[in-house]
Each structure stands twice: as C-alpha cells, then as structure tokens.
Amino acid sequence: MRFKLLILATFLLIGFVAKAQTQEDQLIKDLIESIAENLPEDYDLSELQDRLTYYRKHPINLNNTNAEELKTLVFLSPLQISNLFEHIKKNGKLIDLLELQSIPEFDLTSIQRLLPFVTLNQTGTVDKITAANLAKYGNNDLILRYGRVIEKTKGYTDLPGSRYLGTPDRYLLRYRYTYSNRVSASLIMEKDAGEYLFKNAKPASYFFPSNYTDFMSGHLAILNMGRFKKIVLGDYTMQFGQALTLWSGFAFGKSPDVTGVVKRDVGLRPYTSANEFAFLRGAAATVEVVKNLEFSPFISHRKLDASLSTNADGELTLSTINETGLHRTQNEINNKNSTEQIVYGGVLQYRTNGLSVGAVAYHTSFNRLFVPGASLYQSFNFAGKELTNVGAHYSYTYKNFYFFGEFGKAIDAGLAYVNGALVSLSSTVSAVVLHRNYQKNYHNFFNQATAEASEAINEKGLYAGLNINPSKAWSIQFYGDYFKYPWLRFRVDAPSDGYEFLGQVTYSPTKTFRAILRFKTETKQQNTNLTVPFNYLDDVKRENYRAEVKWAIGKSFGFQNRVEVVQFKKGAANAEFGYLAYQDVSYSPLSSRLTGNIRVAYFNTASYDSRIYAYEDDVLYNFTFGLYNGKGLRGYANIKYKLAKRLDVWGRYAIYNYDNVETVGSGLDEIQGKMKSEMRVQLRYQF
Amino acid sequence: MRRNLPLFFILSFTISHTFGQYNQGARLTAMGNASAAVKDVWSLNANPAGITGKKSPVATLNYARYLFGDELSEQSFAFVLPFDNNFAGISINRYGISEFNEIKAGFGLAKSFGDALSIGMKGNIHQIKITNYGNATTFSVDAGVNYALNKRIGFGLYVNNPSSQEYKATNVETHIPTAIHLGGTYAPSNKLILAATVSKDFDSKFDVAIGVDYKFYELLSLRGGLSAKPFKQYFGIGLNYQKLMMDIAIESHPQIGYTPQIGLSYAF
C-alpha cells in the first residue's frame, strides 16, 4: 500500500516538475496570489519573486541549508522547517526528495510547491570571487518597462492651480546581477506618471549623491565571506522576529494561508523593489561572532517626503511621513526629500535548530521636529526628533508546537508584545493562535507586526486559525480574529472593537481542476454618517462571498471563473451590495514562443464601500490588485513573446468601461468620458 | 435590593442574549459549544443523543462565574447511566443570584443502534424565581440524533423546545428558546476532534460555532472554539487522571468579558 502510494506520488511529482519548468512564472504567480491578499494597487513584489526565480535556477540544498534560508520560501511554515531539521538530525541527510513525505506537516501541496526550489545535490561548486568567475558565471537580468494611461487626465491639462508637471509616461529600469550565492548587485530607476523624468531630481541621500530619475535605488552585496555572512552597501531591508521592532519592506499578515500571521524573518536582504518607501539606505552586515551567534550592525541615511510647517519658534515641523513616493505636483515636489532620517543599530541573534532568540536595538533621528496632529486621536503620536527602540524575539520548537513571539519597547514611550503558537494537531490539521497587545504610544518607524489596522499600534487582539487537509483533494481553512482599539482612531471617536472571520474550502481533485468557496465577514465600528453634536459609533459590517473555478482544456488553454458578492452595512442604513464576475482565459502551449491571457469582468457595486478587489495578471514582476468600483466592464489582455533565448517581451492592455458616467476618476486623475485604459510594455534581457 | 438593580438589567440582557443555550459544561463550552455532533455528559444540555458515548456511569459538577456581577454564577450537575445500548441521564442547572434565579432540570433517555446511529430525548422543567415577585414554571422537550458516517466523520442534529413552550405567568417575559442545531465532527486521529455546529434560534440569526479538542498528552487536553453571533472566543484545558476529570473553560464575550468555568467529573 505504502509502496503504491509512493509510486503514485512520484508520478504526480514528476509531472509537476515537468510542468513547472515550462511554466516557471505560473507557480510563482499562484503562490503570491494565495499568500498576498489585498496588497496595495500596483505593489512591487519583485524582491519576493526574485528570490523564487533565483532558487529555480540555484535550488537550495536541503542537506546544507539553514532556517533563515528556508524562510525565504514564504510558503513553508516555520513548523515544517523545524520538522525538516529534526528529521535530518534523527535520520541523517536526506537521500531522496520523496523522503519529504514522511516528515510531519509536509503535505503533498507543500511538497509540490517546494520541489522546484530545492535539491539534494551539492550545487554552486564554482563560487570563488574572481574577476573571471564574476564575468563568466554571473547572471544579469535587465528589465525595461514603459506604461501609461491612454486618456488624458485632468492633471495634465492647463490648470491654473495644482497640476501634474511631468508627462503621463511611466518608466522603469531594473538591472540585477547575481553570482552564485556570493555577489549581488542591482540598479533601479523609476519615474511615475506625472513626475519629471530628469528635471528637479533632488539627491536622496549621502549614499546617492544625485538622482538621475525621480527614484533611484541600488545595492552591492557580498555574501558568505567567512565570518561575514552578508555585507550590503546601498539599499537593503532588515526583517527580524515578528516584525514588531525592526522590519522594513513587505510583511504578510492575515490571509487564507492561516499560518501567514507567523512572520518569516529573513534578516538582512538587499533591496531590489521599486517601492519608494519601505527600505533602508546605507550599509549593513551580518557577522558570525561565534557558532550560532550572529550580529547584524546597520546604518542608514535617507531623505523622506513630508509636508512641513513652521511652529511658534520658527522651526520646521512635520506630523507624518508621506509614503507614496509620488512627486507630480509642485506641492509634492516641494515636499520631496524635505526630511532627513538617520537610523543606526544592531541585531544579535542566537540560533540553533529548535531555538532562536534575538535582541534588537537601534536609534532613529530626524532633522525636523515631529509634532502630533491636532486631532484627539493623534495625541499619542510620536513627538520630537529622536527615538530609540529595543526589542527581543524568540521562537522555539517543542515536539509539534512552534512557539514564537516578540517584545518591543520605545524608550520613553510605549510597549508592545506579540506571542503565539503554531501547532500540528494531527497529520491533517494544524492550528495557529496569536495574541497581541500594542500600546497606543508604541512609537516605531519599522513596525510591521500582525495587526488589523494598517499600523500595529493601539490594538489588542487574539487570532486563531485552523488549516485542515482531510484528503489530497480537499483543503479547508478558517480563522477568527477579535481586536480591540483602546484609544480613538481616524474617523472613530471612541475606543472600539471588532472581529473578522474567514472560511475557505478548496476542492482540487485533479491537477487541472480547482474550485474554491470563500466566506469572509468583518465587523468594525466607525463614526456615524449622521450629523450629530457628538459622533457616536455605528457598526460597519462587510461580508464577502466568493466562488471560483479553475479548469483547463487540453494542455494549452486554462480557464478561471470567479463570482464575488460583497455586502456592506453601516449602522441602521440598508445593506448595499457589490458584485463581480469574471472570466479568465490563458493560452500557454508547451513549445510556443507566445503565451498570453485575457480577462473580461462585469462589476456592479453600489458605492465605494462595497468595492471589490481582485488579483490581475500583469507583466512579470508587477503585481496588480484591480479595484472594481461602480458599474461597468473591465477587460485586459497580456501577452508574452520569447523574442530570443534570453530576450522576452511583454505587453499589456487594460480597460475600464463604466456604465452611465460622464467622468472617470476624481481630482487630478479625472478623465472625461466613460473609459479608462492603460498600456504597458516590458522587455527583459537575461545574459 | 436597590444595590442589585443594575444587575437585573444585566441579567435580563444576558438571559436573552447569552442564555439562549443552557450551559453545556466546561468541555463543550471550551469547544465553542459546537456540540451538535460531540459526545459528552453535558450533551444532556445539547444533543441528548450525545450521551451514548459513555461506557460507564459518569457524574459531573460544573461551576461558571460571571465576572461582572458580585455573586452571579451558574451551578450545574449531571449524571449519565448506561445500560445495554440504552442511556439515562439527569441534569440540573441553576443560574442567577439569591434574589433571582432560573433553574432547569431534566431527564433524558438515549439509545444507540449499532455503532453509527443513536437517538435521544430529554424533558426539562424550567423555573424562574424572583424574591418578592413570585415564580413561574414551565416545561420543554429536546430531541436529537447522532450519526457516524465513518470512524472520522460524524453528524448530529437536535432541536430545543420544538413546541415553543413559554412560561405560563403573564408577568415573565423570559422565553424558552426554540432552536435547531446541525453539526459535524472530524476526528483525523484519536487525539483530535474538530467540531462545527450551525444553529438557528427562531428569534435570532444563524449562529456558527467551531471547536477543537486536542489531547496533547494522555493527561492533558487543550481546547479552543469560536462562535459567530456574537463573536465569542473560547479556550480550555482538560485534565484526565484515571477516573477523575477536571475541565476548565474561559469564554470571552465582546461586551460581557471573560466568563470562567470549571467542571469535575467522575467515571465510575
């Protein structure tokens, strides 16, 4: 019986590997879609995709790796990782990848996801840093992207006041160099729609004397130099513990992958995304002090965007940092790089297979004075110029329990902590529990901890999730989260609370068919819409119902259909509804230079409150969550063509066609007419 | 008496909102009361067919404390006696303070037909007593069925008070809930039970509850649960030493806060 199963699994896995090689991007896309729910629009997750694409070419040797490296494969749960090490410790090195099946928590889906990125063979035999090797074995990846909204928006017309000063074109240049797991470098230049291309590009830091385009980013990293595990010059991210004390860049949170709330801290990483805010700029390193003990010192200097005002003493002040990275109008250009930030500190980490503990300390200072906003809800915001943060984090595996947590403290300000456990209850069921308490005055500029609100402050909560895989075909996820805001919030004039519940059932009897049913409900409180002397709070309830089928005809055509209904209800007002239905068709024959996909969607939402987001296919490295609001049709088409062995080209055209409107969009983005269309072209050259 | 006036408001609030179901003991409470298909002594207050899980007579005491009141609590007792494929059980719940209390006492009978199917019925007497106001009495019936599809998956269905009995006294507003509950369990191993129950009280919306019972060691069980309306979270542990069992549960309600309870059982 066991033997039969093994053979069956072998065939499944072989089939999968073959498919994965032909559709390298498909898997990465699926993966990111399943873990990254509700990303901001047009978010650049290229750093994540970069990692995965890199491992496709340079698989991780499971017999010679560490937890930090495996955590970069975001779909592995920490419990799987420690079970793997436990297995190797007990049974010796893995002899065959099929052995993974005998490790607790490794279900077929995880194994299928994992296989393309791992190996058991010693790889990277050539890794000496010499000029000849760097030239011969290095990988170069160059991407050029151009895009624009085709219709003319109001901001580009000859307005008397605020208007977009640049052109509506968007440009991106992204160059990446990697050599084995020893050297990495990148250069990114970007111009958003409405920004100047060259003019008025102010320098952004000591570390970049001048900017040639509106946004520039780059790094040079040398890895695995004896004691020096990592050295990064230029732009980098630091991700430690549960993201409470020091975490820059993107962090996954609550999602249908219920274990997503357990952060996969990957430490110091070079920064290779085009997002203009979430990174550090300067120098950082990770040094092995003694066996299992690492120290990561870092220093960063950046100029950030903020709207400044002058206080009574004539000093320039700000209340918040602007994170959009847009510099289109005169005002936005004036605010650009108006504030300097210096961050320095270090992280000490002790790690063995079962246990990991760490301590973080760093100092943030600004050349301008922070003043809290005038509203009552802002009264506990950061004030001053200097801030010191300290924190401690841990994770510990005991049998089938993985405990994790972090404590963070801002000196002379608040405290925050998060603790939880990930438990493998049986071979088919795992559970997550996470408790959090973030004080209202927990000041930290690098806090991405799991929270319901966009910032992990002024919140207490308890999250519990279950992941059930009763058989190969079925998979069920649940989570419930109760949260409390002890202090006021924007548009919430009293302490409030709420809860969220998600249930999802996936049925995938074959490799080419998958059906998903999802239900999500969320209740929060917000100021009433009525005009009253004192705002009272109304319950705001949002429910999502989703049904999705993915199927295929033959080897070349794939189909996906989704229907989603949103119900929104605030206070005593009647519930309003939003609907979305779409049809996706993809064409990707095994041996064709041309692949592509299209979507046709119909949406009808009563208002912005019942809007719906859905993941959209895009050119490689760009991630779009389409916003479906109003009533109309949405369509897009993507094509990819392999021009030559190392040269690919992508094209995208997307359009909104609204029903019964005279203008689309608002403010400076307003378009006359009922259409909004956008095009994008991308060229990638790998050499 | 005046001291307790605010308490009366809270009591009437909790009776109509949280007392829709009578206390199901610390184990089932810790599982979010997702009890329609779970077998327990306190199935007496849920699906009476669930008492067929016991192989020997069991007696149990349970005590729940409502933290917002000075002396508000619920005490309960249950006993189940198996004979052949038949099971008999009695239960008593008392909820309130000395000036106000509500008692539910009942007698249940259940029968199992083979390993898969069992059915159960229970008759209850309800009494509300308010010092200086008098008291009111009525009765109700609960009935349920359990069906095991296989070793791993089971289903349960039960109804409370299908004939919608009410207190006869005209000055008592409190009613006996009429509700139907449908649930399932999934036990992927001998150590783990996952349970879910959908409930429909005729006077309120659908409620959904899910619960987990995980036997961590032979001695120790960990439990947790969620229910949707209102959104409540539950946690609990069970200690199992030979014939003696101790269960602890904590229920967290968004308005009422934490309600701890403890249960002691002895299997003869």
Give your account of this protein's structure.
The complex is a heterodimer of chains A (687) and B (268). By secondary structure, chain A is mainly beta. Chain A has a domain at 1-35 and 59-123. Chain A contains eight helices and 33 strands. Chain A has a 24-stranded antiparallel β-barrel. A two-stranded parallel sheet of chain A has the order 1-2. In chain A, β21 and β22 form a beta hairpin. The longest helix of chain A has 21 residues, at 2-22. The model of chain A is unreliable at 1-23 (pLDDT under 50). In chain B, strands 1-2-3-4-5-6-7-8-9-10-11-12-13-14 form a 14-stranded antiparallel beta barrel. The radius of gyration of chain B is 18 Å and the shape is globular. In chain B, β9 and β10 form a beta hairpin. Chain B has one domain: Outer membrane protein transport protein (OMPP1/FadL/TodX) (Porin, Beta Barrel). Chain B is built from two helices and 14 strands; from the N terminus they run ααββββββββββββββ.
Question: What attributes characterize this protein structure?
Answer:
heterodimer, A: 687 residues, mainly beta, 24-stranded antiparallel beta barrel, 12% helix, globular, disordered N terminus, B: 268 residues, Porin, 14-stranded antiparallel β-barrel, 14 strands, PorV/PorQ family protein (chain B)
